[in-house]
Fold tRNA N6-adenosine threonylcarbamoyltransferase.
Amino acid sequence: DQTLTVLGIESSCDETAVAVVRRSAAGVEVLSSVIHSQVVKHAEYGGVVPEIAARSHVETIDDLAQRALAEAGQPDIDAVAATAGPGLIGGVMVGLSFAKGFAFARDLPLIPVNHLEGHALSARLTEDVPFPFLLLLVSGGHCQLLAVKGVGDYERLGTTIDDAAGEAFDKIAKVLGLGYPGGPALEKAANSGKVERFTLPRALLGRKDCDFSFSGLKTAAATIAYEHVKTEQDRNDLCASVQAAIARQLVERSVRAMKLFREHNAVTSPAFVVAGGVAANATVRRELQALATANGFGFMAPPLKYCTDNAAMIALAGLEHYAKLCKMGIEDRESLIVEG
Ligand code: KG4
Ligand code: ZN
């Protein structure tokens, strides 16, 4: 088995990140993973400002790459992987251009990576999760259920028809004056709140698919906030009710996806992987874990540092694609198609 070492770059939102990941017969090893968060720069605007994000990526990426290579012990790099989308175009262009320059100067292949594929494979950074597995990807921009059958082989079972779960957390937190980023702040407030205080709508109840919808919840929460939230306790109670409602919808849709997954994939005890920033939420994690256990799925959530945006997952996704290309005998730089 071939040993491959890949430099990964992520810059699609408000984190600039560079990582070096190696895969050998011994397994996957993250040699370094450095992240520069721009959160403080965007906080005063209550959300990510694309222009500020792009400029900050430009300012930090070179330094971060040097640090990632130094922390990894200046290893020989076999390929460069970079997020090519989806994301804020200014940021994506910064990361991808840097990656192109780096690869061109060293005569290395450049592997464009879909950001979502990075999240999809992130669980394999720390555990050898076998294919096929069921994935719930819950981030600020996405909310999807996928059957992950192999590298580059995904079947979408469900997606949001409006907001992503993280977006719902962020927007409701904003209405409640909890600042940005809203998810962690809302969770903190919810810890001192009473879940049963407010009744919130259950979306898409009768539907047989695995889609999500959070816009009704958002509106309901905003209305309650306007009419009933006067004290800090009121606010904490609403946070607890909102968090429970989001977790419940994730559970209700995931249980359907588990059924579909079983119908299409003959695996005795498949893994249910939860990835993306919202997987950092303890209530969401706990309820999904209980669901997995009750339905005969093994539960896996990547460590928090690989749940939110990072470059190790991009390096790994690039590495897995590159390994596939090598197997097919098309590993030279000229024959690789560079997208993005
Ligand atoms: O995966 P991620 O870092 O970025 C995207 O690709 O979107 O996810 C960020 C999202 C944000 O919406 C953030 O509010 C949410 O994940 N998030 C949380 C928590 N930590 C992060 N949501 C709820 N509870 C948390 N503890
Ligand atoms: Zn992400």
About this structure: Residues 133-301 form a domain with the Nucleotidyltransferase; domain 5 fold (CATH 3.30.420.40). The radius of gyration is 20 Å. The pocket of zinc ion (ligand 2) is lined by residues 115, 119, 139, 309 (CB under 6 Å). The chain has two domains: 4-126+307-335, 133-301.
